[in-house]
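Q: Please design a sequence for this.
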């Protein structure tokens, strides 16, 4: 009889995880919150001018010291101005910038292999393409030369920059592009998003189960009174929604806000969209109020979603399950250095890799599963 080979079991390789600075995590959060969700009609027209669809796929988001700006901006750098005297740079690989500009200008003659700076007409064509991608959120200030880049680096002094690297695929050619913004941009107001753009990605939450609290009243109690509560004491509520068995105004609470609703027997009717800092349940209702992008965005920000990190899924027989004992070894399905799944309600929403974020375990997203 041949005995099965003993499987090697080794501890979790924490020392082997890639190291990521917390500033890099914050940079990813900053840029992902402000990158455009949907390109507008101007971008579609620009793609037609190039001869077909242009796709940008974000491959990496990272943070870097401001002193490295000129090195990171090597290529064709287009400066964008944003409200509040803020700025951003869109850097396009030099070879790709020339191909895109010539395609936008309708120039079909083959280009010489030797690198050269863009002409004024090519710079204008590249600015047109970047303006179409940025839409109304930013204004193009022109292609930034070495002097302008040095001035921008001085303006942020010893601060940090956030950068997003993207792979560009176009009919004119492929290459890379990079978005660079000062870290101080995190203090700016979030970019406006349409309700349609927000709800278009709500499908990721289909399998998430969210508990809501049904509140009928609220009141303030002094700390001394709270610590001295005893059986038989009565707490008075100045404002209480439900007055009798027929029901009345209530609040369906979620995070710092909630939905104004009315309880009618065992039926609950929503009468007002989600609002932050919603008051007591007997507030005045406005049933004519329509959902808008602001309320939808607030709701998504307050929504508590449990995200589970799965290394893999193990399938065993029922007999093996009931025979599991301490010391038993079963195959995990994936190596510890391999990818992990992020799931919501059992549904895979993203895949990533484990990283060490200054002593804490994190997951760096490498793929979104729509």
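A: Design:
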């Amino acid at each position: 009889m041949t005995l099965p080979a003993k499987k090697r079991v080794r501890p979790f390789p924490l020392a082997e995880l890639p190291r990521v600075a917390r500033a890099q995590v914050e940079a990813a959060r900053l840029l992902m919150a402000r990158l455009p969700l949907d390109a507008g009609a101007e971008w579609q027209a620009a793609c037609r001018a190039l001869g077909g669809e242009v796709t940008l796929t974000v491959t990496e988001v990272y943070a870097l010291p401001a002193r490295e700006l000129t090195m990171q901006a090597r290529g064709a750098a287009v400066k964008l101005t944003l409200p509040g005297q803020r700025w951003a740079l869109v850097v396009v690989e030099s070879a790709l910038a020339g191909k895109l500009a010539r395609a936008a200008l309708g120039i079909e003659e083959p280009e010489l292999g030797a690198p050269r700076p863009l002409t004024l007409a090519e710079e204008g064509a590249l600015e047109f393409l970047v303006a179409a991608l940025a839409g109304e959120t930013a204004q193009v200030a022109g292609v930034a030369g070495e002097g302008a880049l040095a001035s921008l680096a001085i303006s942020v002094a010893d601060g940090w920059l956030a950068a997003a690297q993207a792979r560009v695929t176009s009919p004119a050619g492929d290459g890379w592009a990079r978005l660079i913004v000062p870290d101080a941009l995190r203090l700016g107001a979030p970019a406006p998003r349409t309700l349609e753009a927000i709800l278009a990605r709500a499908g990721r939450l289909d399998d998430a189960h969210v508990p809501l609290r049904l509140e009928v009243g609220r009141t303030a109690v002094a700390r001394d009174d709270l610590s001295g509560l005893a059986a038989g004491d009565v707490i008075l509520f100045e404002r209480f929604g439900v007055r009798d068995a027929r029901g009345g105004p209530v609040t369906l609470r979620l995070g710092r806000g909630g939905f104004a609703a009315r309880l009618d027997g065992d039926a609950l009717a929503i009468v007002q969209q989600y609002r932050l800092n919603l008051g007591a349940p007997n507030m005045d209702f406005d049933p004519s109020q329509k959902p808008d992008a602001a309320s939808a965005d607030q709701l998504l920000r307050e929504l508590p979603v449990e995200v589970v990190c799965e290394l893999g899924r193990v399938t065993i027989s029922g007999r093996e399950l009931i025979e599991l004992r301490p010391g038993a070894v079963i195959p995990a399905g994936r190596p510890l250095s391999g990818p992990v799944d992020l799931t919501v309600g059992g549904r895979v929403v993203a895949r990533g890799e484990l990283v060490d974020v200054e002593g804490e375990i994190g997951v760096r997203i490498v793929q979104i599963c729509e």
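Q: Thanks. Anything notable?
A: The mean pLDDT is 78. The chain has three domains: 16-188, 211-302, 307-368.
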